[in-house]
Amino acid sequence: MAKKQEAEKHESKKDETKGAMTADCIFCKIVDGKIPSKKFYEDNTVIAFLDINPAAFAHSLVVPKLHFKTIVDGTPDQVGKTFIGVKNVTEHMKTRLKCDGFNILINQGREAGQIIEHFHIHVVPRFKSDNIRFIPPDHKASDAELDQAFNKLK
């Protein structure tokens, strides 16, 4: 009975996504339980586990169970449910870790630092004493730079 339910669960994951889960994706393998992880949260849409290359204590990844590469590849429903998972994970972490804040990061595309081509969100709990800074370079944009960006975006 358990194997049948697991097979149905896996099939339903395939049906809801734009494509089948990718056999060579490390996050798909973690979702399927083929690769172990330090998973501490799971719901119908996402799992959360500790990052093996943490920027800080308890740095975690929230990974949708359905495979899509970037935020633009996911459906609005998939992306929305993933962010609900992020909210639940941060509430869980805040309660358990008593952290003072969070950095929530998304790297989209190789040029932006995305290493695994499966959409995921980094949740980095922060503490007053951790001395970690995610601060952009000190550069104030000129009016011309802002106008150029604005004209391309409007």
Shape: globular
* Name of the CATH architecture: 2-Layer Sandwich
Provide the helix percentage. 25-40%
Would you state the CATH class? Alpha Beta
Q: In order across it, which strands form the biggest sheet?
A: 1-2-3-5-4
Low-pLDDT parts are 1-19
Describe this structure in words.
It contains four helices and five strands; from the N terminus they run H-H-E-E-E-H-E-E-H. A hairpin with a 3-residue loop joins strand 1 and strand 2. The protein has 154 residues and is α+β, with helices and mostly antiparallel strands. Mean pLDDT is 88; it is low at 1-19. The protein has a single domain (19-128), classed as HIT family, subunit A (2-Layer Sandwich), CATH 3.30.428.10. It has a five-stranded antiparallel β-sheet, covered by helices on one side. The longest helix is centred in the middle third of the chain and has 22 residues, at 76-97. Helices cover 35% and strands 16% of the residues. It has helices at 2-16, 26-31, 76-97, 143-153, and strands at 39-42, 46-50, 60-64, 101-105, 121-126.
